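Hello forum,

I keep getting stuck at the same step: I have a sequence, I want structure tokens, and every attempt I make locally crashes halfway through. Rather than fight my setup again tonight, could one of you with a working pipeline run this one for me? It's a single chain of 486 residues.
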Amino acid sequence: MTEKTFDAGDFTLEHVREHVWELPQEGDMRVPARVLANEALLEQISDDKTLEQLRNTTHLPGIQEYAICMPDGHQGYGFPVGGVAALDAEDGCISPGAVGYDINCGVRMVKTNLTYDDIQGNEEELLNSLFANVPTGLGGGAVVDNAPVEEILDRGVEWAVEAGYGVEADLAHCEDEGVRPEADPQTVSQKAKDRGRNQAGSLGSGNHFLEVQRVTDIYRDDVAAEFGLREDQIVVLIHCGSRGLGHQVCTDYLRDIEQTHEGLLNQLPSKELAAAPAGSQLAEDYYGAMCAAINFAWTNRQLITHQTRQVFERVFDRSWEEMGMELLYDVSHNIAKKEVHTVDGEDNELFVHRKGATRAFPAGRPELPPAYREVGQPVIIPGSMGAGSYVLRGGEHSLEETFGSTAHGAGRLMSRTQAKNEYWGEDVMDDLREDNQIYVKAESGATVAEEAPGVYKDVDDVVSVSDALGIGDTVARTYPVCNIKG
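Reply #2:
Ran it on my machine without issues. Output:
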């Protein structure tokens, strides 16, 4: 009986089981690589350099079990977006390129007790008010001018709550309660701090957005009830990261690591995977700086949450507490965290790199907040402006399959350049409003063209693979009402 394979140019993937494809270990690969996808998604994944980058990832010292590509995977900087790699925290390394430039780009969902009927007729007022009160676009603009960046880097969302930009419940519903204690502001360059100082509380540009949505479908009634979700409910999705500060941290450490650890770099097939050996000074410094940037990104999303609550108060003439505007969860991608995972029957501390991948811990994992420890971690997977987004919960097989991870979005099909050649931003906005009753406002028509619905993979496919593999269980689907972008 011939084993099923998938041929993609220089790569032949072996079919392990449904939705699991393996690139066998050969040559200098330290482990095999795995792609989690159906055949339609696999065709798209094989269209760019994703498989080459995934294979390159297997050369990193200390990598465990296999390098993994999620169903939304596509080509990134050195390491594929949608990639997961767990590297031994004692004998392995940590790689800024495997984290990415937008450290802790992530997404949070804010619930309300409003229904779609409550919103209808107010869409334009809400859209314009959100756009006026949440800074967007390249460069500066912030909720907090001349922010105390050192304190934000050190304390994360704790600072925001203390300063009046949130409540204690926000901490309880954020990954790691909104603060990485290993953060070391001293390892963040002055240039990075200066870039972040006037960007605290801003969306930025590119694929970042704030979107008001309605819940259209519930798939697991019991889990949705635990999450506080119901059909026709209005929720708000906020997607952004660490802005120029995180970008500068990555730039600084990539350069320093390339110069200091040239010997390790020469062993890797791509200099974009430049890594610092675990235990080295640069590994320690980068981890401290990355954790500080993580804190900045969480605070950034918290400040935008504060602005959003104030806008809703003005538009609907009642307090945000009366509207039930509570945080469901804030999840991170573009991150490398020390976590303990079982490998070959033994518990090991690993640097789990998730670049364009989301942590998806199942029920019982001690890192989860008490509110979700018995049901599993909420996972938020945004789709494009014209498609739905999804709420999942960490699946029971995620730890054994993916080091507790799943996808982070729909995943791009087109480059930004190609998208701008194919779409005209004003047309995209007009079509969304006329055909789908989705209201969009952006700093630039070019940004809308770059983020047109046709630029992305089918988020339904991505989520169905996650659900079928038991790494992220589908709980609810949402659909856009209005969206602001940089």
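The radius of gyration is 21 Å. If your local run keeps crashing, start a new thread with the error log.
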